[in-house]
Amino acid sequence: MLRAYNELIHTTQEGLDYLTEQYAGLPSPQAPGVFQDVLLAFQQLNATHEKMGRLMKGVLLKDFLHIVEMLEGWFDIPSQEKFIHLTEVVLPAYAAWSEKTQSALHPYIVH
User: What architecture is the 2-109 domain classified under in CATH?
Assistant: First the structure.
């Protein structure tokens, strides 16, 4: 389960990176679908948190929920501002959270 969770962290990052590239110029018609996929990934990550017990308590969970809050108003953000929102708000927070989370997971998934 922890390996799959770790892989999902990477996949979510790839989705966010793709969205950033799309909103740096004219977004493709696939961008809304990719955003939906990113939201599904966040739902899957969140569903796993309960199974992870104390590993995903406290600051890591709080930081994760804060990132989800950052994405809640996505459809209300004008298209030209989505790039700024991603690069200046969402991506730095996600990168910090994923780094801390992967550090916490590392002892459990290294063989």
Answer: Up-down Bundle (1.20)
